Amino acid sequence: MSAQAGTAPRPRISLDSRLRATALSEWIKFRSIRSGPLNLLLTAAIVLLGAWLLDAQTRSGWATMPPGARASFDPIGTTFNGIQLAQLFVGALGVMTVTGEYTSGLIRGTFLATPQRAQVLAMKALVFTVVVWAWCTALSFPAFFLGQSILSSPAKHVGIGAPGALTAVFGAGLYLTCVGLLGVFIGVVVRRTPAALSALFGLVAVLPFAVNLLPSTLGSQVGEYLPSNAGEQAWHLLPGGAYMLGPWSGLSVLIAYVAVAALAAFALIRRRDA
Amino acid sequence: MSHTMAALSTGSAGHAPPTAYRRARAALAAEWIKLRSLRSMLVTPLLAVIVSIGLANLVCFNWVKKWPHLDAAHKAGFVPLDTNLNFVIIGAIFLGVLGALVVTNEYGHGLIRTTLAATPQRGLVLAAKAVVLGLVAFMVSAVICFTAFFTGQAQLSGGHLPHVSLGDPGVLGHVLGAVCYMTAVGLIGLFGAVLVRSAAAAISVVFALLFVLPALVSGLPDDIAKRDIVPYLPTNLGGSLYLSHPHHAVGVASTPIAVLATAAWVVVLGVAAAFTLRGHDA
Question: Which pTM does this prediction carry?
């Protein structure tokens, strides 16, 4: 009301206070996503249950496991394998953070309040990153300790001080956060929930299968650089694949995908109508 | 409008209730209109056709290209039918998503309340949805599977690789198995979506059930629990239907068992969906 043209101009709002206000409103919207708490709880349940079930099964089958399989057994990768399922829920939360707002039409109110669209998206991504990273990192520690306590000797297990172990535990949280962010940016590009979810799940869950069907070395070459295959090196102790992407290089590949999606999202959110 | 009013005011003179046959026909027609006008109804099957046939041909093309460089052991392990039909694991996803969208779009727009007001027989509504989607899914799958089969085998025979034709023993059965599996996945998506209602949840369930769960449990070491679960997941049952040499770490369901178990997935989910639809408000 006070911004009527012709009346005395308001003082310009400083970038700092606008960003803070935007972050606060993004936090309120994120907090009130109806399926948000359920998604985060399911993520925790799957990661912890996965650690328990997968390691308990390995422990009981250890005696009959062939020596080759024992040598290539990855005590951390197996513990965290539930992430393959949990990433769907984190990714879905990322998608719905954005598409829910487009579906309900709230996005128009958001852009009316803050016409600086890039700042809106930046704060949205920031709030999502902080919450999801904190949650997923907080749950990867208990999952690690639970899994390693189940994998008691004679099964292969590692302590948190073992080389690479702490990296992998942090890597699990970072990996899930990256998949969620990929969901956020794909959500901005696609804007409709079903299509965005299908695109994200296709990218992280289906594409590795499709590439696997190719017989040539092309399959493994391309396959290793797919977002999920590269990123999951972050929560493995033993590198897999021919190129031996390490935890940080693998995670960097995933982050590069997120960056490309982010570029597209920032470009599109400024150009398109809401 | 006046017809609706008259039908609503029960007890007033005139208007006998419609016969079951007329009601079923009307429900089918309504479901067909809704399916036809679904925005994803064009995009999803189109993507399914392009991705499936493209993938099948890409895989066959790759084998043809690699063939001269392969050693005897690799050549002996080549199964022309399975190489060709491997795409079904991915193609089926599109039908699962389509089935889910048929339901969740209706809930998302609130159209379901109109549907149930027009046809209060909720079991009939669900049955009509399943019949219409099942027929569409079957036709789309048939187009995909037969086209992929003929083009894929043509590539293999063109490259002088071992190949099969539809008349060879068992081949037609496996191609039809692929069609039926993809149709079943469409119905699983439809019934699953009635259970969860939201598009996000339904699509997550479809991907988790068909893709992530089989990969996750196949990482378990062999033991009895795994032997009782892995072969009966929809994806692996599908493999038993359309592959001539299905290979899983632990047992494979035989064809009759796989047919029954796939049907059981559809029927159990269908019954659960019918109870949910009848028991909940819209």
Answer: 0.85
